[in-house]
Write a structure and sequence with these properties.
Its EC number is 3.4.11.-. By secondary structure, the protein is α+β, with helices and mostly antiparallel strands. The protein is built from nine helices and 23 strands. It has a seven-stranded mixed beta sheet, with no helix packed on it. Helix 3 packs across helix 6, helix 6 packs across helix 7 and helix 7 crosses helix 8.
Length: about 475
């Protein structure tokens, strides 16, 4: 699966085609409360307890995972769906080359057959779970890192395990979300939860990961890294002989930089400067970054893939002129903190992250809508789903969601006025903090910020 990320160094350029128990105060915006996930979105408040052992170079990880969850729906919950997104590119594999992510020995329910190209596993619960009650399922996990340069793949001696960990799928008023991995963009839809992931690995491997990590000595020659993350939608880690450095922003966010030996020093320094400045700026603009620390994992050989955001960790293709670090950090708010269905509404994170990036750099946008020219087709619209883009409209995804979406938000700022737009966006983030947003919710927030009828604006910008 590939994605595209915009970056600017120093001009905006296009990167190559290519991220419970109630949440504690530490995972919230100070002075605000998370908007509750709509009751129809279930199972919610998930907790993931994972213990995995890695082999000599981090290519294989085996262990066990337990997922606990609550039924937030008024109707009894009879089954849950586990998504194995790491199988998206490879499907069900072959007898001599099985899928990269496999589960087995399920407890707490009865597993059915793998579906959706072996990316979905339905587990029937032993008894219907009533509203508000909790249950859990456990299963063995075996992960083999694919031989490709990718967010779930290999980069020389380095391994990246993005979208590798099985996650709970969501069902809501639209039904079960069992969308396919279409090979570009993101198809993922998860609810914020808590993770405790214990990774037993060779001490020679440096292992950046989502959350706050503590390390202790394990068996001879091995280290046990325990990462705890609260209020996040996914968990990612990497493994390899990374070099590293940590800095703290003036706003108090710890940035942990990891890079491969060939990553240029100029790019590392530039990424760190932009990361320090942008995470604090976005915190002031949208609400304080809630996780305390953020990992930057950098390599100069990710050109066939690019950059990718995950909660608490961003994967960066870093050249001497830097990377898309600002765009990926903006995603910590738009998709990470303000969640949404990434398959149904890709614009709600990509357009917003690109808009935030252009604000950070102060890019001129006064004529951006006119500069875009005609729409690429009569059916193109900002609010199309990944199903539309996968059905013969792939180029529109890159032409519409990023530049047109960001420009529409700049135009909305001109419509509302700068202070009103800033206030509206901060309120929108606050109201959906660690929850799930929709296009309709955003349109309501924008309309509430002005006495003007925004109907003509939505129609002109094809925000349907």
């Amino acid at each position: 699966m590939t994605s595209i990320r915009y970056w600017r160094a120093p001009l905006l350029a296009l990167a190559a085609v290519l991220l419970l128990v109630p949440h504690p105060a530490s995972a919230r915006d100070p002075g605000s409360s998370p908007a509750p996930v709509p009751a129809a979105a279930t199972p919610d408040r998930p907790t993931y307890d994972v213990k995995l052992r890695g082999d000599a170079d981090g290519s294989h990880w085996t262990g066990r995972q337990t997922v606990s969850f609550r039924n937030a729906a008024r109707t009894p919950l009879r089954s849950v769906d586990i998504r194995l997104w790491g199988n998206g590119t490879y499907g069900c594999g072959a007898p001599d080359k099985p899928s990269p992510v496999q589960v087995g020995r399920v407890e707490g329910g009865t597993p059915g057959p793998l579906t959706v190209d072996c990316t979905a596993l339905r587990i029937a619960l032993p008894a219907p779970l009533p509203y508000g009650a909790r249950a859990s399922v456990s299963f063995d996990v075996a992960i083999t890192v694919p031989d490709r340069v990718h967010r779930f793949g290999r980069d020389g001696a380095h391994r990246y395990l993005g979208n590798a960990l099985p996650l709970l799928s969501v069902r809501d008023a639209q039904g079960r979300h069992l969308d396919p991995d279409v090979g570009f963009g993101e198809s993922f839809y998860t609810l914020a939860g808590d993770f405790r992931v214990v990774l037993d690995h060779p001490e020679a491997l440096v292992v950046p990961a989502t959350g706050t990590t503590t390390r202790r000595a394990g068996a001879p020659g091995r280290t046990v890294s325990t990462s705890v993350a609260r209020g996040v939608r996914d968990f990612v880690w990497a493994a390899g002989p990374f070099r590293s450095k940590s800095v703290t922003t003036p706003g108090g966010v710890r940035l942990n930089a990891y890079w491969t030996a060939s990553t240029p020093a100029e790019g590392i320094a530039l990424d760190l400067r932009n990361a320090v400045a942008s995470v604090d700026e976005f915190g002031k603009r949208f609400g304080r970054y809630p996780y305390g620390e953020l990992d930057l994992v950098m390599s100069d050989t990710l050109d066939d893939f690019g950059n990718m955001e995950f909660p608490g960790l961003v994967l960066l293709w870093t050249e001497p002129e830097g990377s898309a670090v600002v765009h990926e950090i903006a995603h910590q708010w738009f998709y990470g903190i303000v969640g949404k269905d990434q398959f149904a509404a890709p614009w709600l994170d990509e357009s917003f992250a690109q808009y935030a990036t252009e604000l950070y750099y102060g890019d001129p946008t006064a004529t951006c809508w006119e500069d875009q020219g005609m729409w690429p087709s009569e059916t193109a619209a900002l609010t199309r789903s990944m199903a539309y883009y996968a059905d013969g409209h792939r180029t529109e995804f890159f032409r519409v969601v990023y530049p047109r979406g960001a420009c529409a938000l700049h135009d909305l700022e001109r419509e509302l006025g700068g202070p009103a737009m800033a206030s509206m966006l901060r309120g929108y983030v606050r109201d959906h903090w660690l929850g799930v947003a929709t296009t309709a919710a955003f349109k309501r927030a924008a309309q509430a910020a002005t006495a003007k009828d925004l109907g003509p604006f939505w129609r002109e910008h094809r925000i349907l």
